[in-house]
Amino acid sequence: MKSFALVAALAAFAIAGCDAKEAGNSVSPASQEPQVAPILTTADAKDSYTYARPQEARVANVDLDLNLDFASKRVGGTAALDVIAAPGAKQVVLDSKGLEISAVTDASGKPLKWAVGASDPEKGAPLTVALPGEGKQRIVIRYRSAPGAEALQWLTPEQTAGKKYPYLLSQGQPTLNRTWIPTQDSPGIRQTWSARITAPEPLKVVMSGERLTPEGEPAGQGRRAYRFRMDKPVAPYLIAIAAGDLAFRDLGRRTGVWTEPAMLDAAASELQDTEKMVEAAEALYGPYRWGRYDVIVLPPSFPYGGMENPTLTFLTPTFIAGDRSLVGLVAHELAHSWSGNLVTNATWADSWLNEGFTSYFENRIMEAIYGKHRASQEAALSFDEMTKALKEAKNGDSTRLHLPPSDANPDGGSSGIVYDKGAIFLRTIESIVGRERWDAYLRSYFDRHAFQPMTSALFLADLRQNLVKGDKQLEQKLMLDQWVYQPGLPSNVAMPDPAAFADVDRASSAFAKGGPPPSEFAGWTTAEKLRFLNSLPRKLPQEKLVALDRGLRLNEAGNNEVLFAWLELAVANRYDPAVPALERFLTTQGRRKFVGPLITALAGDSQWGRPIAVRIYAKARPLYHPVTAAGLDKLGLAPAK
Ligand SMILES: [Zn+2]
């Protein structure tokens, strides 16, 4: 995922692929035995955010048959689960949150005993089902989701670009899919899945798997059914759905974009390098194993930058800048097809195995396509983010890559650690062993562990066995345990290229010393603009803000990252002329990385900012995804219901 954990106040804001336009040629029989992925049994692989007890009975496959009901904001139907039970196991424990269950049966329709246990506000409730037999067996759950299911956002027509049809989108990571799918919702319990979804015409449904019925099939009563299949075992947070007035355009031989018709030209133009990115990624770390790589550009309320749903990356429209300057986001989600989707953190304490690896890989894809200079600038920005996170950490332990229990919750960890320190660790290994040797190792790592869960300890053991190979000197140089298990920054860290921002840093100190804003700003890359804005002192005299605003036309910035960096500075300095731009920004998109810090900063400034926050939040909240609103509601800006 590409989102960003904020520290302290917003602990709830955290870290946070469509295939087959032409499916059908390679349909294999439905009776094909699903692959069963192993479950790790070591103590560090135990996920405390699931009720499942996979050693006794584990879900290996999920078959969904669901209707989308936009009027009641519910999905309803059945989930048939293929369960594999250990000898003597009498029950299977699933995760559920808010699900309204009406019946549980075996494959023949015979009722089974079931019970929902006490509910926890974060984890939801255990759903325990008495197993009908021994070994592999099938249970069928009839249910519907609650109208407030956290994974699902139901948009009114007014909340879409086209304004004509409603829209549904889901976000499963980290533990939200249990609000619409009763299964074992843990990243270490991989499952194959299939789905048949009906929706009212003319809405189209897409999911994160192979599309078996590109145009859908008549389902009666003005509805169409769409069928999907994922025959590779995936972590259940990767099951994703979107439905709306969707159009598709090819980007390359196996790549394409879905979005609302009004967005199609802009999205396709911004995404024109997508096929090249897949090729670059394959050249680095081996074949892309998921068939098609499509993306869907969602309505602006999508809470994250992107979500790496297999075969169908979900993307915020805020990455569209008109000049492909923010497509690092696409490289990031694509890289997750290896790090995260192929090899997956077994628990959220090891999120860095998903996000740090992916941030490293993202930068390598950017280098392959846009050259060393752009990549070194983006790596230097990432180093700045890590430095900031290390400085702001509430305690040393939270700067460990393998997160301590206090931060090991699904939304835990600061992005500057999990994403950036993780990537910088891998860059450090690269600098010590050399790129060729490191790339060969990494490629073999993805092959060895494809479709399997991973822990920090398992990764280090693999690295020692296959890269270090008993070389004591190398072992000493790498400082592996210190990187993963100790706080702070080891002394062997590979520093960013000092030349990456030499010109920008000169301009920034000249401005801080009283000079005019840099005249070359308009011609700078996005990374250069961000470095400049982020390197300015957080407190500036009003005349400096006026000079920046007028000289660089920052309130009109079309690039959302640049606009965000400016608005952060403006809010920190109570700069009134930026308020209209701020209001526009906060009421037209709901990406948590942007709205979280800005609204939090406003809310924390009781004299100037808080009244502005109250006014804007009242207007913006209906646009935001439940996970975005849930975090911000804690600030107490909305009147109590
Ligand atoms: Zn990510």
Short description:
The chain is α+β, with helices and mostly antiparallel strands and 641 residues long.
Give the uncertain stretches in residue-range form: 4-34
Q: What's the shape?
A: globular
Strand content: 15-25%
Mean pLDDT: 93
- Total count of helical runs of at least 4 residues: 18
Portion of residues within helices? 25-40%
What is the end-to-end distance?
Answer: 32 Å
Number of strands: 22
How large, in whole angstroms, is the Cα Rg? Answer: 24 Å
Ligand species: zinc ion
**Which structural category do the helix and sheet elements fall into?**
alpha+beta
Main beta sheet, described?
A: 8 strands, mixed
Overview of this protein structure:
With 641 residues, the chain is of the alpha+beta class. Helices cover 33% and strands 20% of the residues. It starts with 56 loop residues before the first strand and ends in an 8-residue tail after the last helix. The structure holds zinc ion. Zinc ion binds at residues 1-2, 332, 336, 355, 358.
